[in-house]
Fold:
Amino acid sequence: MTDTVIRNATIIDGTGAPRFDGDVLIEDGHISQIGDVSPASTTTDIDAAGLVLAPGFVDVHTHDDGALINHPDMTFKISQGCTSVVVGNCGFSAIPAVTGDNTLDLSEIEASWNDLNGYRSAVEASNPAVNAMMLVGHNTIRALEMKGERRRPNDGELARMQGHIELAMQQGACGFSTGLVYRPGRWSDTDEVIELAKAVAPYGGIYATHMRSESDHLLDSVDEALHIGAEAGVGVQISHHKAAGPRNWGKVVDSLAKIDDAVERGARVTLDVYPYTAGSGPMIQYFDLNNPDPELAQAIQLASCPAFRHYEGRMLIDIANELGITASEAVQHILTAPDGKGTICIQHIMDEGDILTNLRHDRVMIGSDGIPDLTGRPHPRLFGTFPRVLGRYVREQGVIDLESAVRRMTSLSCDVHGLQDRGRVAVGNWADLVLFDPSTVLDIATYEDPKRESVGIDRVWVNGQLAFDTGRHTQVGAGRVLHYQQH
Ligand code: ZN
Ligand code: CU
Structure:
């Protein structure tokens, strides 16, 4: 492997410390020198004058479990400067699985594995462009052990679910995730989740949660998450922190106050956010087919619609008007069609002010929550999240400074999710690095045209290997499925 010197860069080291100018030497996949690197004939030299060199960004909230195998070039992530992704969020993970069956996560790909070790082999065999860290999902293990049962688990079922979590932790997962609005996780009570979260405690893992409510009962849900963390003795990661629906806008201030309070009393709590006022997910999960919520129906745009491809990118209300039916009837029309259950929707339900509140909070990291279904028109967060924060919120609006934004894309993300020896430009660390132009970096993916790579990302290295080179995907595939390690 040739060694690389990145010269004259503006280094933002990921800790939040002020930027400084210098060179960085990459040797054997690691950062071996920072400062003035003397010339040598054996290295590739890159002149980075005017560019920022930072640790590679970590997308802490992804559903890329299947994409690492289906789309190992991971163009939508590497082109944003991401070098690692945390998978298994919202209670849906590609492990555990039954070999030969489809996984019980959003990708539903055929599994050639049943546990994390098997998944790691399958992913690494496909040479993904980025690294991955696993969370084991509640919806997945509950579906595996209890199908769709709407009741508490019996002792045997609970023990088997705990067993799945323990095995995943032993094999290197960083924690346990829930998606308590989704089926079947929503059929669980708080005690069940506490008992399961206890299984990650001996490994120092985290409890990552898409809470039971992100709308009318947001604050109760934060209380529940904090209670679960305290009872189980684990750190809590609140996923895509938001307040949905106009009557709830602004509540993120109160929920962050609750979290600050808990942190002051010794709790370990962190959060993630994506910088958009719309969410996205499997449409079937948000509606009662017998009685679709008309208010939500008004806010729906179709991302991926296997039953009616020509609806993709359109607002549901426009489709309803065209068909001469109500928006609620349009929900039924789409979801009951053959393949309708595979529909992914976008919900325009959040407030811009709440995004700013989240971005200003120093425990909030960045996670895209992108759903890598590339057949339709995915939510633009899949391609745009990180450059959008850097371009719109840091450069254009000055909501936070660049050092703070980078810290919450790198060192904080790595510390919480156990990506050891990454997330900082420091000697000895893995050379996961991004070089970008702070004066041009910007997302250009939109709801209308979402599969567009961002601008201003110059180069990206993963484990010391050049993965993205001035717009070109090098296809070196140096990513690994990482092991969580206790500090
Ligand atoms: Zn979620
Ligand atoms: Cu998610």
